[in-house]
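Notes taken during the Thursday session

The instructor put the following on the board and asked us to keep it in front of us for the whole hour. The protein is 3-oxoacyl-[acyl-carrier protein] reductase. We were told not to look anything up and to reason only from what is written here. First, the residues (259 in total):
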Amino acid sequence: MDLGITGKRALVTGASRGMGRAAALALAHENVELTILARTPETLEKTAAEIRALTGAKVTAVAGDITTSEGRQAALAACPEPDILVNNADGELPGDFRNWGREDWLRGIDRMMLTPIEMMRLTVDGMMDRGFGRVVNIVSRSVKIAQVELGMSNAARSGLVGFVAGLARQTISRNVTINNVLPGIIASDGQRDHVAVLAKQSGRPFEDIWRERAAQNPAGRYGEPDEIGAYIAFLCSSKAGFVTAQNLLIDGGQYPGTF
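Then, after some discussion, the predicted structure tokens were revealed:
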């Protein structure tokens, strides 16, 4: 399927690995002009080179922290008029809210809620003026299935989802859609970090917990980052112009509800 986004400009944050990298690669396969941002220059440049080699796409790599004003300015200097924005950032590791102080909460809310909102503030008006825009936020299934060890993610990401519910209905008439993808267990570095913390807290072997989590999923496995990337590419396509304000689970059927 031709997704109809050849020549569009895409800005993907948190793009050096995992689901962010997969989204960037999927978009590059659709012949978009790609700008990717992450904090670690070496990993980012390696990813950029790999995407160029695999797709032939133009890829600009910007090393920076998107949670800072300087990082956002650098990203938008490299891609001042994005047609596509994919907001992705690491969440907080598992923990007990009794151990979190105000600064911990502010860090988590800034990363998982306020920064994606700020990136939308800086880009959606231009998208509406040009008559095309696609925003996808990589969130988490924790907004639908609260995970006791992820209290900060449960709270901050739910705030982002609530904000998008209002904004997306203001932009759709100008062909700008905003959606959230809610990954379940995905075989990514972030998932491995999560399980490593659970192993340390419980004293159980990492591999036991890893296998157990896969066995609990109806699919009997972890999702792959590339599966997330392909879904995001479709949401960014010209074919998805009637899909907005949605929270789309990609979790192997693990969410137990009907709606």
